[in-house]
Amino acid sequence: MFRSLKRESAHASQLTLVLSVSLRSADDLFRRLRALGLRRISQCRLTRNRNVMVSFGADELRVHEGYLSAPDEVLLAIVRFVEGATRNERIRARRRLLEFPVETRTPATRRRSGTHPDDQRLAERLTGWHAQYNSRHFGGNLRSLDVRVSRRMRARLGHYTAATKAGDPPEIAISRRHLRNHGWEEALHTLLHEMVHQWQDERGLAIDHGTTFRAKAREIGISPYARRTVAA
Q1: Is domain 117-220 in CATH 3.30.930.10, yes or no?
Q2: Which residues contact 166 (CB under 8 A, 6 or more apart)?
């Protein structure tokens, strides 16, 4: 998700920041963040989400496990991203987080599941809508792909996955539970959301919910927010 950070020689006064103790768990990270000033959060969870590196809500902080190797100056940016008193302070913290190169490899043992045979017609219908939306909102410039219906997704409504080095093509998956609980219109909104991520990927942009995502989402007429509130 994040851009690569070019390494620079550290000034002597910065060595205490760079040579921080190696962290191995969510508890280790949480204790370090608390020492750096984190206050409003009471628990921390590590994730492997390739699109959202740091997020928080209520009293939980979710941080990509790649930040376990980050120096204190980057961990301090996480604290300021959460605790920042002003918008500019949070923007500066976000910029610093974006600069840190986080490894987001998909484990080699992880295999994509296919669409269940009973859901194949739904998947074909969604794939047809992908082609329509591509023509209508993206000038037909996105690559054609098959949309998968997932029976495994519980918390997520949909997901875009970029092509892998192992040769897996890019794909969009839509949750079958989402289709069943929230209906076709909401599922199509989710499809468009994931197509914006596809658009980011194909242009070499960060796959995130940042400025470019929000601008493109507004341009095509969907909610620019990372999560959409729907009835359970």
Answers
A1: no
A2: 108
